[in-house]
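Write out the 3D structure for:
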Amino acid sequence: MRLEAAMALRGICVLELAGLAPGPFCGMILADFGAQVVRVDRPGASGDVSHLSRGKRSLVLDLKRPRGAAVLRRMCARADVLLEPFRSGVMEQLKLGPEILQGENPKLIYARLSGFGQSGRFSRVAGHDINYLALSGVLSKIGRSGENPYPPLNLLADFGGGGLMCALGIMMALFERTRSGKGQVIDANMVEGTAYLSSFLWKTQELWTQPRGQNILDGGAPFYTTYKTADGEFMAVGAIEPQFYQLLLKGLGLQSDELPHQMSMMDWPEMKKKFADVFAKKTKAEWCQIFDGTDACVTPVLTFEEVVHHDHNKERGSFITGEEQDVSPRPAPLLSNTPAIPSSKRDPFVGEHSKEILKEFGFSQEEIDQLNSDKIIETNKPKANL
């Protein structure tokens, strides 16, 4: 059971227009920390493709029909946050732009989460994480030496520069509203969010003088990369500082006076081969036994199956299990007084809560029945177990 009264975002009402990864992740963060999040789904949707609806409820509403848009307008008059994931201009076409909605509710925080932003020549074109990553400049920095740049899954742009950055914007807007009493429009987009995440790269150009994959932090250095073990597993090495590097060499059984200087970049390829030969002689478990508890900055590369059972993560309770025995990371960061208490219930079916949500927003039973009859809304209740 969630103790919502003790959660940081208790009492905050969020309307999340259904979309792909970034928006649902942003909404899930808000829900995990206590906000009441309503996912507004499209009619005919077979399910939640994002799989990020923990703690939310679902309302199916046809926004392409004027009466459906009018329902959302009426709901926004009572909401704290509207989260929309469309390209620039789409909400204005539906007559649901911020000028209209904030005119009726000046306290509304209107969060716009898009790929390229609300202006600029790309604002109305399609894209995905790899495109946003490319336009931000960050993709040019990721990849092995002599190979094409490659995307690190879809984590950086979609979830880091997109969903998480938008959640931060919403938090700041909510805080500012406590002083001004007014909402504001948030233009969060994956290109600029990812670029902002890369501020360190911009401010440390001296660390990136070599081609991609040949610098200290991009896999070029022998002391900051991964190595295969005797059993085909991998160890991650991040022994940058000299004192940590010496502990790495000690664990590997190597003598520093028999090796080139740590920062001799021209010798890095040869040193990598030497380190690789040593790591290949023992299993991952054996290397863990050697390096665990040391400051050599050497750790096992854990699979999803292994990470849940790792002692450190188990001691901290870093992963949680839902009622359907699905495992996922615990919300972060930890708050001492108002921690996140994520729902353990299954994700909602599309349209599962349509009627009860509208009732909470002041719609009469007659209005709800008419909207349902006219297919402005849809209801999909789970089937009872026989």
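The radius of gyration is 25 Å.
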